[in-house]
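Writing this down once: the sequence line spells out the residues, with the fold written below as integer tokens. This is how one looks:
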Amino acid sequence: MSWLLLALLVFVFQAGTILVLEYRRPANAMAWLFILFLFPIVGFILYYFLAHEYRRRQKVKRRGGWDEQRRAEILEKSHIVNQASDLPSEAFTHQDRLFRTLRKSGAAPITGCNKSRVLTNAKTAYVAMMEAIRGAQHHIHFASYIIRDDDTGRMFRQALIEKAKAGVQVRLLYDGIGSYKLKPSYFEPLTEAGAEFACFFPLRPTFMKKRMNYRNHRKILVVDGTKGFVGGINIGDEYLGKHPRLGFWRDTHLELEGDSVYGLQEVFLKDWELASNERPSDPRFLPMHECAGDEPVQIVAGGPNRRADAIHETLFASLAAANERIWITTPYFIPSAGLAMALKTAALSGVDVRLIVPLIPDTHLVHAATMSYVDEMMSSGIRFWQYERGFIHAKVVIVDHLLASVGTANMDLRSFFSNFETNAILYHPDAIATLEEDFLQDLKDSRELELSTFRKRPRKRKVAEALCRMLSPLL
């Protein structure tokens, strides 16, 4: 009996440790307790290496954040929007609280001198990105969560090699887990051409340093400091619809010119420093530019190296301010309690809340967790569609005619609190209208879920969804 008592004491100690360390996030605590219950010793070891630093991020924070000198230079060169009345939508004159939140959330400032282009799907995005790369004169800064060694990956590699041989500075950043299949042979031609590359938090070293949970999920391209790209599209053949199971791949990317590119450049340079321990500096990284357009754009970066969860905060403030509509496209839907409540109360107040999620999942566990939220959301009046044409990977949020967000962050807890992510908030009516047009087309390519039918799904699926729901904060 003594060994049973000892085992019980060990389990209580492990559970107590998790509860104490995760007191700020009860959902995380419940997920880890569930794992601990299933795997008493192994679960605690996994917790130690994967989650021990969820709220102990000072070491990363000290190296993150904006460099003050660079920040001052960016602010000096940018055209900052300081008043709600300076935004194109007249409705913002009645949204003073939202405007103040967006300005002070920890995101970059709202800049007013920009030109944006919505790039619908990878075929369009790749053409624009390749054109920008081939036109580079000084530097190419490229970060992608996933880079495949396939036809698409080799096409981009060859373009980078050609520019590096021509004397252009080339820096390529990839994530240690997202691109874990990449072999050294992929980078050898880049190195020979004079290009630089860095792996963001490689798998084995970061596991021992308890940083494996922090992934760089960004997809950023900055060319000559004047043109930038950000969105949901990685580098691989599957984004062109060549995945044998998923088929057609629906995604959204942005091309930006103007002040907002400074924000993307700042994000890349900080990530490069974190991954390579190098701090490249060149006045031409932040060049003066002619005003490309009059569109207000705000770059919102989130991650463990930021003092605030800016993406989550700006999204919550935007949803809470909605009066007419909230249209969301996301491949994964695992909202925080705050965002879930914001969506439900908006729907109950008469706001048109619509979500498009995949019918065909790329990750079955996350999809099951996503579907576990559908019943309670639909019960509040939120409408769900499932995309039927293929797999939908776009990350788009449209709020009234006030603003729209496009970027790398999914509507899930990992993107909000653990990953390094970047979104762009668009305020111009033309940009919002383009995203609205895409959303309406996606609705035509989707089927709406009916609550009564959804509740008749097999009990086996309901159990699977409930189990994945418990793990959802970690997915």
User: Anything to note?
Assistant: The chain has three domains: 2-56, 116-292, 310-474. The domain at 310-474 is CATH 3.30.870.10 (Endonuclease; Chain A).
